[in-house]
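Q: Structure for this?
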Amino acid sequence: MKGFQKLTFTYEALQTWFDALQVKRCRDITIPLSDAYNQVLAEDVIAQEDLPRFDRSAVDGYAVRADDTKGASQTKPLLFRFTESEELVDTAHREAKQVWTGNPIPKGANAVIMLENTKKVDSKIEVWTQAAPHDNVMRRGEDLKKGEVAVPVGTRLKPYHLALLSAVGNSEVKVVEKPKIAILATGNELAKTGEERGEKQIWESNRVMIAGMCCELDAEPLDLGIAKDNVDEIAEAIMLGLKIADAVITTGGTSVGGLDLVPEAVNKVGKPGILVHGIAMRPAMPTALAVLEGKPVMVLSGNPVAAIAGFEVFARPLICKLLGMPREESRPVVKAVMAKKIATALGKKNFVRVRVIQKNDELIAEPISAKGSGNLTTMTRANGFVIVAENREGLTEGEKVTVHLFGEVETVKP
Amino acid sequence: MKGFQKLTFTYEALQTWFDALQVKRCRDITIPLSDAYNQVLAEDVIAQEDLPRFDRSAVDGYAVRADDTKGASQTKPLLFRFTESEELVDTAHREAKQVWTGNPIPKGANAVIMLENTKKVDSKIEVWTQAAPHDNVMRRGEDLKKGEVAVPVGTRLKPYHLALLSAVGNSEVKVVEKPKIAILATGNELAKTGEERGEKQIWESNRVMIAGMCCELDAEPLDLGIAKDNVDEIAEAIMLGLKIADAVITTGGTSVGGLDLVPEAVNKVGKPGILVHGIAMRPAMPTALAVLEGKPVMVLSGNPVAAIAGFEVFARPLICKLLGMPREESRPVVKAVMAKKIATALGKKNFVRVRVIQKNDELIAEPISAKGSGNLTTMTRANGFVIVAENREGLTEGEKVTVHLFGEVETVKP
C-alpha cells in the first residue's frame, strides 16, 4: 500500500506546524497614512486629544442658548440679535452667532438652529424652531475621548480607519510589513506561458493563482519560477525562497508516486523539514507542511482546486499570523440552502464548490460538480465553498449550509 | 426658506448624471498576467485550444484499458505487464503504462489505476481494483472547449481567473486602466495632519478615506489637497483635477449656507456644471452631481459618514462603469435580524449603520446610534449598512433586513 499511512486532521496539522514555527509577526514599518489602505496596524493608536476637540456645529446656522428658543415655531418665530463675539454675553437678550459646519460653538451657546429654520429680518434673525440643548452640536469628545484607542493593533485598515487615524492627527502610521511569500511550481509537464511548449506539456497556471491569493491578503508574492522534477533543482529553489521570503509555497510533486519529489527535496534542505504529510481533507490530501530555517514551507498539490483548498486551510491563517492579526481573517459567509444532495468523504474535511444565487429572496447553493480537482472552470463558475465536517458523509437537499464566499452572489429572476 | 427647493431621488439623480455623461470605459492596457490581480478584463478571452488539450492522468498510477480490469479486487488481483510505448498495442494481453499526474494517457488506454491500488511483483504489476472508462482521467476539453470564452470582458480578475487565463496560454492580458479619481477637500476649518493647525481648525480626514474607497474598487486616487472656502481656489483645484483625472470628487462646502461654495465654483468652471443638488437620502442630502468637460464631478458632504454614503450611491456605480463592468459591483450582503427598532426619514433613502454579529447561529444587526454623520467611530464600530427605502419610516425590532457589509462579522458567544 503506497497511500499515506496516516492522514492528519486539518486542525492537528495546523497546530503541529504552528507549534514548531512559533510564528513571529513581520517587522514594523512607518508609512504615510495615504499609502496604508488595507495594511495591518502594528500598534494601538491612541487619541492624543478629544475628538472633536471642541464643541462643533454639525450644520450651517446660528448658535444660540437653547433656553432662548422656547416656544419658537414657524407661526410664532422669535427674534434674535446677531453677535460677532466668541461668547454670548448678553443673557438679558436673545443672541445668535452665525456658524458654519465644523465651527466651534461660542461660549454660552449650547445649540445650533439650522439656517433653513431661520430668516434674516433687517438686522435681526427670526428663529422658527425650538432647540433642545446640544441640538446640531457635535460635542467635544463625543467621537473619541483623549486616551481612548482610536484603532487597535492588528486592524486591517479600511477607509474609515484611515479617516479616524487622520482625524486624530496622524499623517503617518506604523504598519506590519507585507509578508513575502516565495512561490515555486514544480513538474516536468509544466511550460511557462509566453515560451516554447513541448508536445506533452501544459501551461503552468498555479503560480499566478497563488500569487493572487497572497495579494488578496495583502502579502507580497515572489516568483521562484518552475522547477523540473529533480530533487536538487527543487531544493535549490526552496533555499533561494528561504533567503528572500518569509515563507515558501510549492505546488505539485507531492502525492505518493515516484516522481513526487518535493517532500524529499524539503528534507534535503534541512531540519526539521516535513512535519505533516497527508491531510484528512478533500481535495488537497497530499498537502505537506514543513519548517526550514525557522520559516514555514507549504507543499501544495499541483491540482489547482486542491492548491486553493490547501492555501485556505494553511496559508491564510499563516499570513494572518505573520501580519499580527488577532485571529484569522475570514471570507464573507452566508447561509444558503443546498439545491441538491451531494456525497462527501467521511473522515475528511471536504471543500465543496458551490454557486450561490439569490432567488425569491432566498439564497440557494448549487454544487458545482466535477470529478477531480483539476478543473479551473469549477472555480470560475462557483462563488463559494461549503466546508463539510469530517463526521459527515454528504449534504442533503434543502439543508441549510454556511458558504464561504469568494465571488459575488447574483440575483436570478425566478 | 433656504433649504433645497426640491430633493431628487437617488435613482433619478444617477440617471440624470449618467445620461449627461455618457460614461466611456477607460482605455485598455496590456499588462503581464502576474500584475493583473483584481484588475478588470477589457476583452473576452477565448480558449485557443481544448483545456486540457489531451486526455491527462489525474493521478499517479498506471494507464490501462478499463475492460482489462474487470473483476480485479484486493483479494483477486489481476496481473498486467508493463509497456513503455505511447500506445497500448497488445490487445491480447493486459498492458499497463506508468503515468504521473498530468501525463498524457497513451493511445488505447482509457483509465488510470492509482498507484496505491497496485503492487509491483517482479516484472509485472498487480492491479487490485476495477476501473470504469475515464476513471482518473481528465478528458480533453473537459475544463474548456476550444473557442469557448475562458473569462468574459468586464470580469474583475480573481486568483482563479488568473489561473484559467494562464492555463489557456496567456502570459499577458488586456485590462482596463485604473480610473484616476482626483480628490479635493474644502473648508477653512481643515488642517493637514503633519502641519500647523489653528485654534479653530480640525485635522482633515476625508481625502484619505475617499482615496481608500477608490482603492477598494481598484481605482487610482490623486490628491488635490485642501482648498480654502474661496470660489476661485476651489475652481482652480477642480480644473486641475479635470486635467489629470477621469473624475473629480470634492468634500465639504455643499450645504445651503453662505460659505457653501463648491457648487458655485463648479458652475464657474464650465457647462453644464451642476445637474443635481440635494438628494433624497440621509445622510448625504447636500450631495451634488455635475459634469464638466464631459467628465463626472461629485460634490460630497464634508461630514465623513455622509461622504461615504454619497460615494456608495454615486461614485461606486460610476467607477464600475469607468472600468467597463457589466453592472455595479456589490458589497457582500447578508440577511440579519434588527436588534431594535429605529426611526428613519420618510421620503429619503436612509443609510443606517449597523453592527452585525453572529449569535446562536443567527445574524443580528445592532443599529449604531449617532446623532449626526460627523462621527467616524460609528463607522469603525459598524460593519455594514442597512439601506431603508424612501417609503419607510423606520425598521421594526425583529425585522429581517439586508445588510451591505463593509467589515467582518464577528461571532459572539451567547
